[in-house]
Specification:
Distance between the termini: 15 Å
Number of strands: 5
Oligomer: single chain
Strand content: over 45%
Helix content: 10-25%
Order of helices and strands: HHEEEEE
Length: about 70
């Protein structure tokens, strides 16, 4: 994803598709599960008016862990 989008395009995608993440005032992370090549991180995002739960999917690459998706 990082290689396909500029930072401006990435920000626009988050604003459009994940408004709760864009406007979040708090993030609480749960127990991380991984199998050495992929990891799943539960996250509860809070704004002043609502709360949403997501799972971040990470992939391990030579340079470290990178976000592969948000469910």
């Amino acid at each position: 994803l990082q290689e396909r989008l500029t930072i401006e395009q990435f920000a626009a995608m988050i604003q459009r598709n994940y408004p709760a993440i864009w406007h979040s005032t708090r993030a609480d992370y749960g127990f991380i599960r991984d199998d050495d090549r992929m990891a799943w991180v539960p996250v509860r995002i809070s704004t002043p008016t609502e709360s949403s739960a997501y799972d971040y999917v990470l992939i391990h690459e030579s340079g470290g862990w990178k976000i592969a998706g948000v469910l």
